[in-house]
């Protein structure tokens, strides 16, 4: 028997996304967000949702661009820190020793040390309630060459972080159990 939990912000898995932006003085900033994911295939787009109270919200509205940086499990401390502290009060790059890299395609920085970076220009903004959704068209994806096989990223080598909103814990990706668009053919 199933038990109702009521209406909550709970879905599995939830990604750990590090959003990169510049402020009006071109100071690089990053913040951790879990509300986001792919939202369109053509053009390729992703969506992130943030509260207006965040420093990043103002940067997004001003610069109309962002990056999504996927941290590996090796950067769990930094990813958590990026969600704890406001970039308005602290230089998060200086504190963590990570390197901001200016994108050639959008007005936003990505994190050099993180294995997976998505560069986006904002094409739509939707006020939902407490959060505002920013839809970004993907202009480019950068992935460390060592984490690719045949020009494609390998999730087992990237080791992206996952977040459980109910317990407020971080997890990593498990083993592959089947091939999509294939195993279903056995039925």
Automatic annotation (TrEMBL):
Q: Which organism is it from?
A: Desulfosporosinus orientis (strain ATCC 19365 / DSM 765 / NCIMB 8382 / VKM B-1628 / Singapore I)
Record-linked InterPro entries: Flavin_Rdtase-like_dom, Flavoredoxin, Split_barrel_FMN-bd
Positions of the Flavin reductase like domain: 9-154
Keywords recorded for this protein, A-Z: Flavoprotein
Query: Keyword Flavoprotein, does the record have it?
Result: yes
Q: Which domain of life is it from?
A: Bacteria
What is the official name of this protein in its record?
Answer: Conserved protein of DIM6/NTAB family
Question: Has the keyword Signal been applied to this entry?
Answer: no
Q: Which residues form a coiled coil?
A: none
Pfam families assigned to the protein according to its UniProt record, in alphabetical order = Flavin_Reduct
């Amino acid at each position: 028997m199933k038990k109702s939990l009521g209406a909550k912000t709970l879905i599995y898995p939830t990604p750990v996304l590090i959003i990169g932006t510049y402020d009006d003085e071109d100071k690089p900033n990053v913040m951790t967000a879990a509300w986001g994911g792919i939202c369109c295939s053509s053009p390729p787009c992703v969506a992130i949702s943030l509260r207006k109270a965040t420093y990043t919200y103002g940067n997004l509205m001003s610069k109309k661009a962002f990056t999504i940086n996927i941290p590996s499990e090796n950067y769990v401390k930094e990813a958590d820190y990026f969600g704890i502290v406001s970039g308005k009060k602290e230089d998060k790059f200086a504190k963590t020793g990570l390197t901001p890299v200016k994108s050639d395609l959008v007005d936003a920085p990505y994190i050099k040390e993180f294995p997976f970076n998505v560069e986006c220009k904002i094409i739509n903004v939707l006020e939902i309630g407490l959060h505002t959704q920013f839809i970004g068209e993907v202009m480019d994806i950068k992935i460390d060459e060592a984490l690719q096989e045949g020009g494609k990223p390998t999730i087992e080598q990237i080791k992206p972080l996952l977040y459980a909103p109910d317990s407020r814990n971080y997890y990593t990706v498990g083993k592959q159990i089947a091939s999509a668009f294939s195993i279903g053919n056995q039925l």
